[in-house]
Amino acid sequence: MSETGLVERRFGHRARLALSPAETRVINDQAHAARTMWNCLHAWWQMMPKDKRTLASADAAIRQARKDLDFLAKLPAQASQAVLKTYFRAWVNCWEGRADEPNFKARFRSAMSVDIPQGRDLNIVRVHRRWGMVNLPKIGRVRFRWTKDLPVGKRAGTGNRITGARLVKDALGWHIAFRIQTLETKPQPHPGPEVGIDAGVNIPLALSDKNHQDHGRSPRLPDGTADRNKWLTPKEKTKLLKLERQAAHRKSFHKKGKRTSRRLQHTYDQIKRLRAKATRRALNWQHQTTTYLARTYGVIVVEQLNITNMVKSARGTIEEPGKNVKAKAGLNRSIAQEAWGRTVTMLTYKLGRYGGRLVKVPAPNTSRLCSACGFTVPGSREDQATFVCKNPDCDFQCNADWNAARNILHLYRIGHVIVEVPAAGRRGRRAAKTVKPVAAR
């Protein structure tokens, strides 16, 4: 942050590429080469002694590999260097407790991507209102959908520029994600009110002031959990069910070790496109909702949740089998579909943009404590949606999620704060270091 009241902001913008079949094949080859480069680096890391695992020796190894293997040479040299830096960064994140150990990338379960580290190589030009042109290494000039004004040409400068890009493939095809760096005026503290938010399944985001945020269309199953395809229309759900049955039937004729037939692969692609459509709708709802909350409230209080432990299976072991396994599995799916962690991440950077603050408080007993009398009486949480205080002197009744949201806000007001994100943006505190994995010792 500079002394003139400006703050640096980095964000991304994703646009769809218009590729010919030949260009698509070239990018596919580059993406597979990038994945292979990662796997070769991982094998090299496991093979080399600890004192030989340096960036310089790894760089020499990939340079030699590009000379020996023509397939790896399809990947641009700068993209190869980006794979190397990303791999070493993954180990640093692991050692500092932010991620698991890096592993091999499978062909069909890994996202296909190619990095373009330097923004000056892109040479972006706007053709007209709908389309722009970008230069891709070893491919040439390619059109992309112009849906946002980018800092190019006269708009570009030292504090407002594109620093790089990444080619990413999803169910709709290849997209380019630009990395943009801008200087913005430091936001003033947000004058909005304080609010507590409880993330739940019955109500996605329950607010302490009753301004609850719901999906609008979230049909419930008989067990009370949300429909796994709630973001699809009834017609799309019927089509998805038909395609899943069709895929299961065609897969029964597939022989192990043989190549997947074109018909089965086409069915898989159709299923993938429908599920990607549901994901885009869920992301759109999250972005619109978190932007509204960041603009409306000055302080947002949420729970410090360990979501990984919350979605663990209840199957147990053979000696000690679990109870209500099917119901717990349905609840786990509902929690995963709500993507609570992603909602908190969006609130974090959007509140920083608008001058607000995000505060995290302890989660235990917020759903069992009565927000009216302050007592925790067993049995007050009757079901997923109903809270009835069993204290004879209280008899307070309300929605269970709203009761939890009121308790969350009360914890903040009495000073029970775990983490507070400043108004300037993301918190800079590093995660605590953990014991290094065996592969790194």
Which terms would index this structure?
seven-stranded antiparallel sheet, five-stranded mixed sheet, 441 residues, disordered C terminus, globular, alpha+beta, 19% strand, 9 helices
Q: What letter string, H or E per element, gives the SSE order?
A: EHHHEEEEEEEEHHEHHHEEEHE
Q: Which percent band covers the strand fraction?
A: 15-25%
What are the segments in which pLDDT stays under 50 over at least 5 consecutive residues?
Answer: 218-225, 424-441
Radius of gyration: 25 Å
Helices, by number, come to 9
The number of distinct β-strands equals 14
Structural write-up:
The protein is of the alpha+beta class and 441 residues long. It has nine helices and 14 strands. It has helices at residues 21-47, 55-68, 77-95, 234-251, 262-296, 307-310, 325-338, 340-354, 400-413, and strands spanning 6-18, 113-116, 125-126, 131-136, 140-145, 161-170, 173-185, 194-199, 205-207, 299-303, 357-361, 386-388, 397-399, 419-421. The strands form three sheets. Strands 2-6-7-1-5-4-3 form a seven-stranded antiparallel sheet. Helix 2 (55-68) runs antiparallel to helix 3 (77-95) and helix 4 (234-251) packs antiparallel against helix 5 (262-296). The longest helix is centred in the middle third of the chain and has 35 residues, at 262-296. The protein is globular and about 80 Å long. The two termini are 37 Å apart. The relative contact order is 0.12. The model is unreliable at 218-225 and 424-441 (pLDDT under 50).
